[in-house]
């Protein structure tokens, strides 16, 4: 039986209030390794989590691609247009965006409408290879670093949920970097 992913309600960092998703000011973002960008609190938490993964020999521990971290509105728009069609397709996942219904093309993973994704806030990261032993490790450790899942169906998609309260594991990691 598959393990249930712990889903926690997100607390938004204070400096994101009033900011347009997908148009974050550069000073709110930090580069993460090996590629991509996250909100500065999420970036610290991700780096601390990644350091723990490496210490526990969970390698590689990285985003799937740079596009699986912070996404601008134009990146999100391009992703939606690549995955969805405005032509009706029976029995597929739909999104409403720009006042229209969009239909998921066969073979594509769903994607949120531009401006509605936690990727647009720099809080979400899609982790490479989130299955099996790696997923079991993530279920045990991700919450300790301020992350949670958004959907049971997307074990690779974690998002920073701790808001302005920096988790203790992240504070400990920051003492050594």
How would you summarize this macromolecular structure in one to three sentences?
This protein has helices spanning 40-55, 73-83, 132-141, 168-175, and strands spanning 29-31, 37-39, 84-85, 94-97, 100-104, 124-126, 147-149, 157-160.
Largest sheet: 3 strands, antiparallel
**Estimated radius of gyration:** 16 Å
Please provide the count of β strands: 8
* Series of H and E elements: EEHHEEEEHEEH
Summed up, the helix count is: 4
Overall outline: globular
Q: Kindly state the percentage of residues in helix.
A: 25-40%
Q: Low-confidence stretches at least 5 residues in length (pLDDT < 50)?
A: none
Whole-number mean pLDDT: 96
Q: Estimate what percentage of residues fall within beta strands.
A: 15-25%
How would you describe what is shown here?
The chain has four helices and eight strands. With 177 residues, the chain is of the alpha+beta class. A three-stranded antiparallel sheet has the order 3-5-4. Helix 1 packs across helix 4 (168-175).
SSE topology sketch:
Layout: E1 29-31, E2 37-39, H1 40-55, H2 73-83, E3 84-85, E4 94-97, E5 100-104, E6 124-126, H3 132-141, E7 147-149, E8 157-160, H4 168-175
Antiparallel strand pairs: 1-2, 3-5, 4-5, 6-8, 7-8
Helix pairs in contact: 1-4
Features:
three-stranded antiparallel beta sheet; globular; 4 helices; 15% strand; alpha+beta; 8 strands; single chain; 177 residues
């Amino acid at each position: 039986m598959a393990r249930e992913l712990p889903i926690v309600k997100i607390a938004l960092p204070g400096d994101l209030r009033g900011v347009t998703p997908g148009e974050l000011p550069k000073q709110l973002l930090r580069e993460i390794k090996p590629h991509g960008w996250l909100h500065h609190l999420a970036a610290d938490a991700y780096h601390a989590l990644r350091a723990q993964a490496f210490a526990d020999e969970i390698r590689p521990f990285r985003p799937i691609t740079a596009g699986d971290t912070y996404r601008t509105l134009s990146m999100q728009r391009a992703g939606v247009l690549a995955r969805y069609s405005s032509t009706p397709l029976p029995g597929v996942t739909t999104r409403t965006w720009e006042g229209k219904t969009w239909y998921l093309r066969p073979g594509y993973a769903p994607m949120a409408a531009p401006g509605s994704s936690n990727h647009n806030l720099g809080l979400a990261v899609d982790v490479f290879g989130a299955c099996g032993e790696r997923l079991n490790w993530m279920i045990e450790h991700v919450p300790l670093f301020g992350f949670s899942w958004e959907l049971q169906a997307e074990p690779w998609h974690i998002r920073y949920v701790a808001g302005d309260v920096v988790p203790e594991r992240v504070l400990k990691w920051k003492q050594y970097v």
